[in-house]
Write a structure and sequence with these properties.
The protein is mainly alpha-helical and 169 residues long. Helices cover 67% and strands 10% of the residues. This is MarR family transcriptional regulator.
Length: 169
């Protein structure tokens, strides 16, 4: 296989700081580039829908949990890996756009629910379909056997890494 951009990076570091130019850097760079490719492609689709990645995250999270499509802000923050302030800002924008509502929790006056509106359900579904389609077009460039093997290897790698790192889901 011909050298790629990551090989060039590793080689350059091999000359400058050989102790860092190894497999950990190679895996980090390749995975970052893979994530970036998916994010750029999805971002273009979300832009067409007038959504940011963070807004998409909220809408998709609420939609995937099923009816009544609602979570408490703390649960939403945890699911999205955002700060509470970041989640609050995104929710405010989605409320203004008519995609979500905030309602007091019946059982706790200090708590509230963030819930999709009918417009939010439609927008979430359109966004999920659009991003899934663009991701599928990217994956279609990879031989199916390779893509399946890569997915399984990534599962193994993530399981090993999650044991030693705080990765919230």
């Amino acid at each position: 296989m011909e050298p790629d951009h990551v090989d060039e990076i590793i080689s350059a570091w091999g000359h400058e700081l050989p102790e860092i130019a190894g497999l950990p850097l190679e895996l980090a760079k390749r995975s970052a580039l893979l994530v970036s490719a998916f994010d750029v492609a999805a971002g273009a689709e979300l832009e067409k829908l007038g959504l940011t990645q963070a807004e998409y995250g909220v809408l998709a999270t609420l939609r995937r949990i099923g009816a009544p499509y609602r979570l408490k802000p703390t649960d939403l923050t945890h699911a999205l890996l955002l700060s509470s302030g970041g989640t609050s800002n995104v929710v405010k924008r989605l409320v203004a756009a008519g995609h979500v509502t905030r309602a007091a929790a019946e059982d706790d006056a200090r708590s509230s629910w963030v819930q999709l509106t009918p417009s939010g359900v439609e927008t979430a579904e359109a966004a999920v379909r659009a991003t899934t389609a663009v991701h599928a077009r990217l994956v279609d460039r990879i031989p199916e056997r390779t893509a399946k093997a890569l997915s399984e290897q990534l599962r193994i790698a993530l399981a090993a890494i999650e044991e030693g790192v705080l990765i919230r889901r």
